[in-house]
Amino acid sequence: MKKFVFSLQKILDMREFVAEQRKVELGHAVSVADAIRTQIEINIIKREKATASCCGCGDINELRMIDTYITGLDIKRQNLTVELACAEEKVEECRVAYAEALKLCKVLTNLKEKQYMDYKKERQYTEDLTLDEIGNRQKLIDN
Questions:
Q1: What is the pTM of this model?
Q2: How far apart are CA 57 and CA 61, in angstroms?
Q3: Over the range 110-124, which residues count as b (16 or more CB within 10 Å of their CB) and which as e?
Q4: CA-CA-CA-CA torsion sign (89, 90, 93, 99)
């Protein structure tokens, strides 16, 4: 009996490769978004520390410098928030692309499994016929 061969295996392999690439792209997009979130958190901590340092300060020039620093941190946080929104959009695009690639793989995988089950049934049927034939020949020889 011949070995099982899925005729669309090359296409399935290619789709699996594409799905893996989409997964890598998704991972990269998620890591970029996480890095931006981390920068925002660091910015918030720096702002809290700078605000706390204003309390014990009596020099007007130092207060002005701290205020300028806080204003700069606020502007940076606004920019990071815009970047984060773009990064989240990219993450969602990558998620959709990955889900679509997985769906295409799943279709071919299901077809392959169905064909393999049909192959196994046919092989079992052929094997049963062969065993029946051997059994019938044995009966003829014994008689």
A1: 0.75
A2: 10
A3: eebeeeeeebeeeee
A4: negative
Cβ neighbours around 15 below 10 Å, total: 20
Residues 36-93 have pLDDT tens digits of 999 999 999 999 998 888 777 777 888 888 889 999 999 999 999 999 999 999 999 9
Task: Kindly report the length of the chain.
Answer: 143
Structure tokens at 83: 């970047």
Place of tokens 């011949």: 2
Alpha-carbon span 121 to 24, nearest angstrom:
39
How many alpha carbons lie under 13 Å from residue 69 in its C-beta half-sphere?
17
Joined tokens for residue 105: 């793989």
Query: What end-to-end distance do the CA atoms of the chain give, in Å?
Result: 31
Rounded CA separation 70/51 (Å): 8
